[in-house]
Amino acid sequence: MAGPVRVCPECGRQFEFSDPAWRCCGVPMRLAAPPAAPVPLGQLAGRPLTTWRYAEALGVPARWWQPATLGEGITPLLPAGDGISVKVEYASPTLSFKDRGVVLLLAQALAAGASRVIADSSGNAGTAVAAYSARVGLPAEIFVPSSTSPKKIAQVRAHGAVVNLVPGNREATAAAAISAVESGGAFYASHVYNPVFHLGTATYAFEVWEQLGGRLPDTFVLPVGNGTLVLGVTRAVAGLLAAGLIPSAPRIVAVQAANCAPLAAAWRAGSSMPLAVDASPTIAEGIAIAAPARGAEILAAVDEFATVTEEQVLAGRSELARKGWYVEDTAAVCWAAARAAGGSWGEVVVPLSGAGLKTGWTPASPA
Ligand SMILES: [Zn+2]
C-alpha cells in the first residue's frame, strides 16, 4: 500500500502519494477514488480515539502518519436544541477542524522526503500546518493575509514557523505562497490544491456516522469558502454509500457569508461556475474566499446554499456562548443558518469549526 492516488481532471495523469506535485494542467487535482468505507461499527470498538480508527478508509501507510499525528479527531457531537446537533471541532489539537486534513499533508510531506514546508491560509490552516510541521520536525513558512487575527499569527509563530503577512485579500496571499513554492525546494502543504486534505475532512462524516450508531442526519450544514470540509464530507458520503453502510445520501447545505458569497450567488443563478462578486469584508474570515479554486467542484457537490448576514453571525456566536460553546465568528455561520431555516432541514449537524480564543470577541446585543 503506497497511499492515496491523485488525478488531474484535465489530462487524467495520476500522481502517487509520494509525488510532491501540487497541480497539473493549471487546475487542482482530485482524489482518484473516494475514501474506502470504515470497517463495520462492531469492529471499531477498542480502536484509537483519533481519526486513525478509520485508517483503512484513509489508506495512508502508518510509517507516514504515525510521526505526524497529534491525536486529531473524535470531537464531541451533542444536541443543542431545535433539532440541531453541534460537532465541537474546536476540541482539536490546534483548536480547529483543519487538523483533520493537515495531519495528512504532513504525512505526505514525509512520504515525499520534503525538507521544508510552505502553506497559505486565512489563519486556522496555517496554525495547523505550523503545529504539525513542528511535530514532524520540518521548518515551515506560513503566508497569511495581514488582516488575520493576531492570536492566530501568534499561534503560528509559537510553533517556530516563519510568518509572511501579505497585504490584500486571501487570493493575494495564495499568489505569494505559490510564487515562493515555484521558486523551488519546498513542499506545498495546500489545503486548497491538495485533495489529500479531503480524505482527512472525510473523517468528520465518518465520526458522525459512528456517533449516531451507524447512520447520518437528514442534513449536514457546512461552512464553505474553499470547500475543504464540504468536499471531504461529500466524498465520505460517497464511500459510505458505495459500501452499503447508509441507505441514501443526506442533504448537503453549504453556508457563505452574505458579504462574500460567489458560490451561493452561482447556485441561485443556476450557474455551474462561481460568479464574480464584489466581496465586502466579513467577520467570517475563515470563509472569505471571493474566487474559490474549486468552485465548480463545490457547486456540483452541494445540494443547497444559504447565506448569513454579519448580524446573524454575531447573534449566533452569542447564542452559542450562552449555551456553553465559545467559538470564533466563522464557526457560528452554520448554527446561524440552521436556526434561520427553522427546522425545514430535518435533523441537522453543524460544525463548531474554530475556537473563540483564536479571535477577538464582542458580544452582540440579543436580537
Ligand atoms: Zn494534467
TrEMBL record:
Q: In terms of domain of life, where is this protein from? A: Bacteria
Q: Name one GO molecular function term.
A: threonine deaminase activity
The UniProt keywords, alphabetically, are: Lyase, Pyridoxal phosphate
Q: Which organism is it from?
A: Kutzneria kofuensis
Start and end of every Tryptophan synthase beta chain-like PALP domain?
69-354
Cofactors needed by this protein, per the record, are: pyridoxal 5'-phosphate
Q: Does the keyword Lyase apply?
A: yes
According to its UniProt record, the EC number is: 4.2.3.1
**Protein name listed in UniProt:** Threonine synthase
Q: Does the keyword Lyase apply?
A: yes
Q: Which InterPro entries match?
A: Ser/Thr_Dehydratase (IPR050147), Ser/Thr_deHydtase_PyrdxlP-BS (IPR000634), TrpB-like_PALP (IPR001926), TrpB-like_PALP_sf (IPR036052)
**Gene Ontology biological process terms from the UniProt entry:** isoleucine biosynthetic process; L-serine catabolic process; L-threonine catabolic process
